[in-house]
Structures are given as structure tokens and as C-alpha cells.
Amino acid sequence: MDCLSIACSVVIVLITFAYLFIKRRYSFWKNRGVEYLEPSFPLGNIPFKKIHFTQYFVDVLKFKQKSSLIGAYLVTKPVAVPIKVDLIQNILVKDFASFHDRGAYVNEVDDPLSAHMFNLDGEKWKAVRTKLSPTFTSGKMKFMFPTVVEVAERFNHTLADLIKTESEIELVDLLERFTTDVIGSCAFGIECNSLQDPKFIFRHYGKKVTEVPLLRHLFVLAFPSLARKVHMRVIDKNIADFFIETVRKTIDYREKNHIRRNDFMDLLIEINKDSDNSSEPVGTSKKLSLEDMAAQAFLFFVAGFETSSATMVFCLYELALNLDIQEKCRQEINGVLEKYNGNLTYEAIKEMTYLDQTIKETLRKYPPIGFLIRKAVRDYPVPNTKIVIEKGMEVFIPLYAIHHDPEIYPNPENFEPDRFSPEEVKNRHSGSFLAFGDGPRNCVGQRFAKMQTRIGLTTLLKNYRFKTCGKTPVPMVFEVFRGILSPKGSKLVLEIERV
Q1: Which regions span the lipid bilayer (predicted)?
Q2: Of 11, 123, 316, 494, which is the most exposed, with the fewest CB atoms less than 10 Å away?
């Protein structure tokens, strides 16, 4: 047999083996008698379509009358998708002990910034969460409030200068620069200036983080063990080096000069003063390494600037489409500020209840993160069914689909802030709004996210009126290959005028 024949035989055998392997994998849910979404090779149920991944799973709601859970496939990996709110709340809250892990990709050797609180599991997650939670108390928010207001005022001046020469403004980049400057000040104690200089170093690396290909994220999610074996990084080395070096310099400078700012970096420094005589479990009481601290600071930076800016973008988009709602928000803002002699204070923001409802409705319709992921740490029999979520299986909670369920939110594509009036909220299942997650692994920084979003929108709506223009997409079209929900091309143009 010649070499060509041998090569052809080997290829045929490999293809046959791969086909049989994939066919067997794609029979997982069928063999267990579970309703499932029909997968397609090679991505399983990842839609290779012109819609965002999270939108695709709105279709799972059609199974609600048959089952509280359906099966799906992430490439070839079976994943469970709970679709009834009772089961979702059990997973996130009541039965959290069975689902306390996320199963996220952590590779501390090759990708040190991956070892942040969002990704960590087990006792290490618990220890880090306990240590970092004090950063986000109401008292700390009040302390950081003036810093955020100061950045918002700079944002106001920047926008005022822009509309002197043009009325149609691209908002995505502008709002990301605002939140970048906020996080730079509140997390790192660094006077960022990306509002004036779009090429400022923090903005430069913030953009590079958002440009990490979605397929890389999906690969490490589907094949974490393989990704570790081939030393794959999600965060590029130059990005990691920048954040690690920034944290190192900041800590050295503060310790040398005895500087305290009561911010996130201060807390990291205090954590590292812990002795190893703690009563915490072995492996959790040790001081954080420089890389550990950089990973937590990196999480605060990325989660803080991108999700909040996306929320403001979509909120202003909806207010431009619904001028009556925009005017109602503006009237409330002006009325509350008049009560506080024109000063934007922590107490004033708390009184802007209709603005808060508007932000929540934005988060309902456009949740920045469309899925919550949990991992079963033991076999879990699904209540009132014969289905078992097996140990080690990942659970994908489709919060975008839940937020667009017409049985929970009638006419879900309509933008209606009154859905979040106290009366309406009381009449809904407590687990039907998941923008910040739920249970012990909810978003630890939600107070900060809400604060900077409210301050940013208050400053903008007090001074400007937003309208659609010829460049505004109606209806909204999302960028397909980006993890955070964002407008197509990561751009949104609105017409802006002084009030």
C-alpha cells in the first residue's frame, strides 16, 4: 500500500471516529429523555447567525409547558438550561450549596488575571469574596460619590465642547471613556483623563480587553482542560503586564508615602497585611500575591467600565425613542436637585425613583450579560421531575430570555419603566429580574454600578436632550461577536442638544 493510500485511510478513520464521537455526544440529552435544542456541528447550539448568542435562547421559552429545564450543547459539551423561574431561584439561592461554582476558566500560571473573584470557585472564591465585600458598603459608596460626581462634571464639559461643532454624537466610546475615568479614580486612585485624551493609557488597554475575540472565550468555556494544557490565555500578555505593573507601582507608592484613599486599592493593601495565623481554611488565609491583587483590580476595572457604559448607552437610546419618558426623568431630576439647592448628593440620587425604574427597565431589556453560569458540585435531582443535573455539569441561566418572557413582562419589547414601580415588582416572582444575578454569587459591585450609572445619567439628562437621527438604528441591532451586549459596530449615534 502506497503512502497516499495509507494517508487516505488514516484520514477516513479519524473522520469516522470524530463523527461517531460527536454523534454520541449529541445524544446525551436524548438518551436521558430530556427536551433539548437540536445541535448543529461544529458549534452545538451556538448560533452562527446574525443575532447575538443570548437572543437565540429566547426560543427556549416554547418548552416551558413541557419542562422546567431543557438540554443544550456548547460545542460538544452538554449544558443544562433552566427555563422556569422557580428552578432558577432554587439554583441561585435555595440550593446554592449544590451550585456554588461557576466552572469558569482559571489559569493562574499562563493567564494570571483570570484568577479574579468572578472566576474563582470553592473556598478560594469564598475567602476572596469575604475580603472584598467591604469595598462596596453604603459607607464606601458615600465616600466615593464626590469623585464620581467630579468625573461626571468633566464629562459634561467634554460633551458641551463637542456639541458646539456637531449635534450628532457617537456615544459608546464617549460613555466608555467616562466610566474608564471613574474606575481609574475609584479603583486605582489614578487621575485618568480619557475624556480629554481618548488615547490615554487606561482607555487604550480598556479597548484592548473588549476586543478579545468571543470565540476565544467560547473555546475556554467549552474546553477548559484542553485550554490549560495548551497554555491558552484569554487576556493577552501585554494587557496583563500593564495591570500587574500598575498595581505594583500604586501599592509601592502608597506604602512608601503612607497614603490612604479608602478605595479599592486600599482594601487590597489591608488584605495583604493579614497574618497567616488566621482561622480560615488552609490555603485561603494566605496573603494575596501581586498577581492575585492585580486580578481583582482588573475585574473591578473591566466589570465597572463596560457594563455601566453599556447600560447608559441603551438607556439614552430608549429615552431618545420615548421622549415622554425622557422628559419625565428630567422633571424628576430637576425637582429633586432643586430640593438640594442644585447639588447632586448621595441622598438626592436615592430620591430619584423614576430614574431608578428607567435604569432597571433598561437592564431588563438590555442586560449586559445575557447568561448566568453555575456548575453542579454534586448530582442534583430537579424537583418534580426525573431529570438529574449531574455533578460537574454547567448550568446556563438564560436571563435575557427570562427578561423577555411575555408571561412575566407583557409586550417585552416595549420600554416601560412603570414595570418597576413598587406595586408591579410586588406582583412578580422575586427571581424574575436577574441583571445583577441572585444569591451569594450575585454582583458584589452592584451598588457601585448603580451609583455611577445614576450620576452619569443625571448629569446628562439635566443638561441635554437626546433624540434619534438618521444614523440611529431603529430597531436596535446588536454586535454578534461580543460578550457584552452592545450596538452593532459598538457605535450609537444620537442627536444631542442643550436643554
Answers
A1: 6-22
A2: 11
